[in-house]
């Protein structure tokens, strides 16, 4: 096995090294999007033909340019699509204005409408979502297609406890905070 001449440091170094083929020092492709922003609208729900839930989120991110009186804000809108349990959780816990962090992959779709006009859209298919509003940060991610919420909330006595109980196979039931 050849020694790699790629030198990587920092938080993502181990993940990046895993992508490098030691034999010929080529890298695997990476399709990863990270978005931190606010929902512009409540999640829009629909379902696949088989009945699986799909949530469509529209998340706004802001960029600032210039300084002082010349400072200007630019808003970029992102389409986020969530499937299965992630879609259900977003329906139950997110609303317009919610601050969210989303990890996923970028997907571009093309189609032709009834009039023969070609359309193209780009979206992010979410794999991980963190709800950053409220008393606790809630992280939800998929593992082999199963959503696994990890949530904490403050009880009236100030102690931290899980908001969800049960395993992914048993289903996830929100636990009422005491």
Question: How does this structure look, described?
Answer:
This protein has 2 helices and 12 strands, in the order H-E-E-E-E-H-E-E-E-E-E-E-E-E. A hairpin with a 5-residue loop joins strand 2 and strand 3. The longest helix is centred in the middle third of the chain and has 10 residues, at 84-93. With 178 residues, the protein is mainly beta. The N and C termini lie far apart (57 Å). The protein is 10% helix and 48% strand. The chain has helices spanning 13-19, 84-93; strands at residues 33-39, 44-47, 53-65, 72-83, 99-112, 118-131, 138-143, 146-150, 152-154, 160-162, 164-165, 173-174. The strands form 3 sheets. Strands 1-3-4-6-5 form a 5-stranded mixed β-barrel. It has a two-stranded antiparallel ribbon with strand order 9-10.
Q: What does this entry show, briefly?
A:
With 178 residues, this protein is mainly beta. It has helices at residues 13-19, 84-93, and strands at 33-39, 44-47, 53-65, 72-83, 99-112, 118-131, 138-143, 146-150, 152-154, 160-162, 164-165, 173-174.
Count of discrete alpha- or pi-helical segments spanning 4 or more residues = 2
Provide the CATH topology.
OB fold (Dihydrolipoamide Acetyltransferase, E2P)
The rough form would be described as globular
SS class: mainly beta
Distance between the termini: 57 Å
